[in-house]
Amino acid sequence: MIELEGLTKRYGEKVAVNNLTFTVRPGIVTGFLGPNGAGKSTTMRMLLGLDNPTAGDVRIDGKHYAQLKDPLKYIGALLDAKAMHGGRSAFNHLLCLAQSNGIPRARVHEVLDTVGLTAVAKKKAKGFSLGMGQRLGIAGALLGDPEILMFDEPVNGLDPEGIHWIRNLMKSLAAQGRTVFVSSHLMSEMALTADHLVVIGQGRLLADTSMADFIRQNSRSYVRLRSPQRERLLDVLHQSGITAVEAGGGTLEVDGTGPERIGELAAQHRLVLHELSPQQASLEEAFMQLTAESVEYHAHADHQGPGDAAAGRAPSGGPPPGQAPGQAPGQAPGQGWGSGWQQPRKGN
Ligand SMILES: Nc1ncnc2c1ncn2[C@@H]1O[C@H](COP(=O)(O)OP(=O)(O)O)[C@@H](O)[C@H]1O
Ligand SMILES: [Mg+2]
Q1: What are phi and psi of 67, to 5 degrees?
Q2: What atom in ligand 1 is closest to the CA of residue 34?
Q3: CATH of the domain at 249
Q4: Closest ligand 1 atom, residue 45 Cα
Q5: From the centroid of its chain, how far is CA 29?
Q6: Residues with CB under 6 A from ligand 1
Q7: Which of 75, 155, 258, 299 registers the highest number of CB atoms within 10 A of its CB?
Q8: Does residue 79 share a domain with residue 53?
Q9: pLDDT tens for each residue of 48-70
Q10: The model's pTM
Q11: How many structural domains is the chain composed of?
Q12: Are 89 and 139 contained in the same domain?
């Protein structure tokens, strides 16, 4: 179990991690989700005692990292795949880690096998691709057979087969009753892996919820409409007590009424429709809206975008933990973020 309480980290003026309180529980995969720069890596570094909190506390099974004897047997972590001595072979890198934590040599062979690096065990780590480095980092995390595992953006640099492998690895580690805490900036990745979600933006907690609840709350379905007789259509819908919202590009969006009823109403009134399509808001969109609010809260000055998306909502900069905000139709997703965030970093 990992417990954070009011965990905060400042770098000068910058508040990288802002008063985070949540618990990471055993037996499930907990996804730690947030756009680049949200504070995920900083949080994980504080967990491992690599950075000191400005305020608050983080404990592993009730202890600070520094208080753990042979820490690799408690918690295994992959933070930065490049953080190793490039001149050492994969085997020697792991052997050094093993020896400093009282772990037998045979375990090095086991973990090399688990991550599929046995064939290159004698090769120097500096010649490794990013994907191979990730695998070696994961081998290091598994070395002490720890009850708690933490991975910072582990799929970066992995090929599709590698991504599939790490997903299954995380799930099986959780199924063995271990605590698995994994970060990502990709909602799509988390949706496939995590049982529980902790979402942060600008260092602040935005949601702490089960994946199932997040999906239930955010899988908004609606109907998109286009008609050359738009004004008349709006009147007809209005008279039937159906609210349509203008959604740009001449389209209308209707929540809470199925396409059958709308189509029948249009036919009754001899209205031409050019589009009548059921739509499903994606989780990616929900995630972007959630974090766009936190972006707005901190950087709203000369910046158009998330301010629009969040218009009309509470100015508090985000919903309370565990609660995703409702969505208004017609918001353009993803405004205010760098456009590159959706692409996994290139590797291999
Ligand atoms: N050592 C540091 N000195 C100054 N600022 C930092 C340092 N480390 C991280 N930051 C800043 O803190 C914020 C959070 O960074 P980080 O934890 O790496 O985010 P994430 O892992 O979610 O992408 C970023 O704005 C980053 O620039
Ligand atoms: Mg990071």
Answers
A1: -85, -10
A2: 22
A3: 3.30.70.1510
A4: 17
A5: 12
A6: 11, 14, 16, 34, 36-42
A7: 155
A8: yes
A9: 999 999 999 999 999 999 999 88
A10: 0.75
A11: 2
A12: yes
